[in-house]
Specification:
By secondary structure, this protein is an alpha/beta fold. About 40% of the residues lie in helices and about 10% in strands. The chain is built from 12 helices and 9 strands. The strands form 2 sheets. The protein has a 7-stranded parallel sheet.
Length: about 300
């Protein structure tokens, strides 16, 4: 039903903060039934690698996703090539190319697949290191070199980044070994968006993908915003659908995370347009109310 490529119609079921084998299976079952074909998996690694070892998994959702897909793909007459799997390097604590490769191999084993369609660097810093430390630059380069090597080998079809600013992207592009990031995943919603970053990514052929489209999971502030609710009412849609469609109309990818069948179906009900005047009202929220819900990557040197 929906493209699994980097177009605006690439609907993804995010699994971050969705834990437990039964829940993962249920969410993926609902999502595949609704037409989702893009699955985002996240492996989080705990603490200092030298102290706790390379297999200190905090969230086991990758392993559960791999097991669930073995059952669910045949159920929906799908093959591995019919779906698009994204995973992410949460921690760069290893600070070297060997560590990065180990993490990728671990994800492949957990997901029970020979390749990932997209693999992202979670942030431009290094776990356990001050964001102002100049070595962040060196370890960013080492991580990209490792992922570039794995892409050339074929186990990663595409590679990208998350939370990278224009500064971080310019630095990377100056020495990216000929491989430009396919995606930059950043916070993007009516309260907070960066037009300069969007224009730079478009110029460089980097697809911009939004997270926190609905604000923070800890608050309904954005979904309860009076302007968002008014626009939703005028269109006969929900605030969630308006917020997701707002990004889609800017050619921004979205990462709708949901657990229930109702919300999964709600997130793909975006076959409508927001009139220009209403888009302007939503855009103006950045100046009248705007603030971030997530951390600020500008602090990373």
């Amino acid at each position: 039903m929906y493209s699994v490529l980097f177009g605006v119609s690439a609907f993804l079921v995010g699994t971050y903060q969705i834990h437990g084998q039964e829940l993962i299976y249920q969410v993926l079952d609902y999502a595949l039934e609704a037409g989702y074909r893009h699955i985002g998996s996240y492996a989080k690694w705990a603490g200092d690698v030298q102290e706790k070892g390379n297999t200190a998994v905090v969230y086991r959702n990758e392993e559960y996703i791999g097991t669930a897909l073995n059952t669910l793909l045949p159920k929906y007459n799908l093959k591995r090539e019919d779906i698009f799997i994204t995973s992410k390097l949460i921690s760069q604590a290893g600070k070297d190319e060997e560590f990065v490769e180990q993490m990728v191999r671990k994800s492949l084993a957990n997901l029970q697949t020979e390749y990932l369609d997209l693999y992202l660097i979670h942030w431009p810093g290094v776990s356990g290191m001050q964001v102002t430390h100049p070595d962040n630059v060196k370890y960013r380069a080492a991580t990209w070199n490792a992922l570039s090597k794995l892409q050339r080998e074929g186990c990663l079809r595409s590679i990208g980044v998350s939370n990278y600013t224009v500064k971080h992207l310019k630095e990377m592009l100056a020495d990216c070994k000929g491989i430009v990031p396919a995606v930059n995943q950043v916070e993007w919603h009516p309260y907070y968006y960066q037009q300069e970053l969007k224009e730079f990514c478009q110029q460089q052929g980097i697809f911009l993908q939004a997270y926190s489209s609905l604000g923070s999971s800890n608050t309904a502030e954005l979904r309860d915003d009076e302007t968002v609710k008014a626009v939703a009412k005028s269109l006969g849609r929900t605030p969630v659908q308006v917020l997701l469609r707002w990004a889609v109309e800017q050619d921004i990818g979205i990462l709708p995370k949901a657990r229930s069948r109702h919300h999964i179906q709600e997130n793909v009900g975006l076959n409508f347009e927001i009139p220009a005047e209403e888009m302007k009202r939503l855009n103006n929220l950045k100046d009248s109310v705007g603030h971030k819900f997530a951390w600020n990557p500008e602090t990373v040197v």
